[in-house]
Amino acid sequence: MFGTLSYNKQKTIIIVSFLLIPLLLLATFTYYPAIKLVYYSFTNWDGYSPEKPWVGLDNYREVFSNPDIFKVFTHNFAYFVMGIVQNIVAIYFAVVLSSRLRGKNAFRIMLFLPYIMNGVAVAFMFGYVFDTTNGSLNLFLDNIGLHHLAQTSWLGTEGLVNYSLASTGFWRFMGYNMVIYIASLQAIPKDIYEAAKIDGAGSFQTLWRITLPNMKPVIQLNLFLTVTGALEVFDLPFVLTKGGPAGASQTYVQKVVETAFAFNNYGLASAMSIILLFFVVIVLLVQQLVLNRGGDK
Q1: What is the distance between the alpha carbons of residues 191 and 207, in angstroms, rounded to a whole number?
Q2: Which of 28, 41, 95, 165 falls between 20 and 30 A from 10, CA-CA?
Q3: Is the pTM of this model over 0.90?
Q4: What pLDDT is recorded for position 294?
């Protein structure tokens, strides 16, 4: 068969053959469900009935007019704050552990290990850490003399619960971000640092003028993942608090899942998912605009 075809045609057939299966899988498990999600967002489907009544934009009006839906976005703010701090700390450890520090590989492994752990297992573990009466955190605070903090209900206080949950994510993902930043640092040519040292640049000047600008693409990527991750948090509050106390830790994704599976309103849940997707796209565009301002045109 191939003997009668030209080289270019044979190459085209082989390339298309190798791409066909991945494209079919992508279309089946990504694009088709996305199209169905958009369709369901314009219906009042209950999830199991063959009838899918068309309601047009009613679901979207419900999302934007119902304060109980958009209020949960404020709970995601704590994850955004801790995510920014997480990236700053990750850059610091990446810079320190990229220097000639004795035992740096052991420190890298220790900081990266939490990321390997299962998310649900981490959530259960921190459930014991934050326990009000027998939790290790309150016992530690009591032993160092901070008795007024030792009785704090970290997961039961409305103003603290989201930051307590977000700190768990900080502990788990900081090492992963650190490894990404270490890889970025290793890609920076050493000649630049040697030239800066000859010119008399100090450590802070080298960090600010050489290291961070050369890490900018990776920092942009990690910040995007951090912001989108903050918008899409689900597992930690679901396992540890179930959205409590009194809905104070319920996130937007939890609200979507509750709308779909607890209230059987798959149409409204689909509309909420589409809106979340648009929010992620807007965040990406704003981030690109802000971080690229003043850059090369």
Answers
A1: 15
A2: 28
A3: no
A4: 52
